[in-house]
Amino acid sequence: MRRYLEDPIRKDLAKKIVILSGPRQVGKTTLSQSLIESHVYLNFDSGPDRETIRKLEWDRSTSLVVFDELHKMKKWKSWLKGVFDTEGIPPAVLVTGSARLDISYRLHPLTVREICEFLAEKPEDALRDLLRFGGFPEPYLAKDEDAARRWRRTHLDSIIRQDILDLENVRDLKSLEILVDLIRDRVGSRISMASLAGDLGVSPHTVRHWLQILEQLCVVFSVRPYHRNIARSLLKDPKYYFYDVGAVKDDAGARLENLTAAALFRELHLIEDTTGRKTALHYLRDKEKRETDFLAVIDGRPALMVEVKAGEDSFDRSLFHFQGFLPGTRAVQIVPGLKRKKQSGRVEMVAAHEFLRRPAEYLLSPLPKSAS
After folding, report:
1. pTM higher than the cut 0.70
2. 328 with 367: CB under 8 angstroms?
3. What is the pLDDT of residues 309-333, one digit of tens each?
């Protein structure tokens, strides 16, 4: 299938080195090899390919050279800059990796929007299947729950047993696996480092470091509370969500919240990677414990707040409260199975599959007129 980053990557390959990162098995290799028919693919994990890279012996007559997992080579950035400064383009150069890099583009798992656009599925069906199988291409396209569970076990084991050891000297891999399980059960909840440290029998510093590794390898991503003073927001407890929605505990509300977080995260990265605008995803919480699940920020301006309700179609009062403090910010409550869109004041309520089919419209469109 086509992926949503194909066109912007092709455009940039004509004039500069393109770097593509994302989780393991999200489709980076398939995407990179489908861009241009005449290409050379070199994986730094392969011994023969590694020697070809180090000796600079790839075919220069090809249209595209793909370097996969190049970040595992020491001083890869200066090496790559030297190649570009000496040889330029062509051939075009695309660098891919399963760790977060100094990125040009970030490829995410499938979303309702991408499935509707490129697979022509109905949004209701896409939402249902994403909640069952997750958004990684292999289990989603197979649509077999047993196969998805087997894939998921192998996928996480590969990250912990291979990718982490390539980056860090982590000896207590079993505790790291337990940490993933603890996060799996706490999706959507604020995470206390001290609490996790107590559960694992390690220091809060160690827990924080392990979570940074899991973020770097695109297993989880953090959502921090919004505060205009960035330093203060970093001191507050974050929430963590999985790139793989199927990894979340089997709870409809938690999976829908994670899926929404992943969809917003993907849209914000797409805006940032293709336009250069700075984006961030937060949650809202005040001293009275009023809370809203997500606040998307673009160029420092709050653009969209989103509350996810798995089984309730009455308006959450926190949206009205926070909208009063953040005038001009669009507020949406999403509910699965909602039959008809609702609006109260300037707060909207929409069906989950409809919101997830076109999240960019909500992010980038102005506030609707106030309902009387």
Report:
1. yes
2. yes
3. 987 778 999 999 999 889 889 999 9
Q: What's the rounded Cα separation, in Å, for the pair 364 and 8?
A: 19
Whether the CB-CB separation of 304 and 296 falls below 8 Å is answered with yes
pLDDT tens figures, 33-64: 888 888 999 999 899 999 999 999 998 888 99
Q: How far apart are CA 55 and CA 50, in angstroms?
A: 9
Q: Which is nearest to 226 in space by CA: 277, 184, 279?
A: 279
Residues in contact with 17: Cβ distance below 8 Å, sequence separation at least 6, in sequence order: 80, 84, 89, 93, 94, 95, 104
Nearest Cα to 248, choosing from 152, 335, 142, 158? 152
Which phi and psi (to 5°) does residue 202 adopt? -130, 180
Token representation of residue 97: 């990796």
> For 86-145, what is each residue's pLDDT tens digit?
888 889 999 998 776 667 899 999 999 999 999 999 999 999 999 999 999 999 999 999
Q: Which two tokens stand for residue 340?
A: 């008809």
| Residue among 172, 148, 177 at smallest CA distance from 25 | 148
Helix locations, the chain, DSSP H: 6-13, 28-35, 47-54, 76-87, 112-118, 123-133, 137-142, 145-158, 164-167, 173-184, 193-200, 204-216, 230-235, 252-275, 317-325, 352-357, 359-364
- Which residue from 22, 241, 102 is spatially nearest to 3, judged by alpha carbons? 22
CA angle 350, 353, 356 (to 5 degrees): 90
Instruction: Give the Cα separation of 66 and 369 in Å (integer).
Output: 49
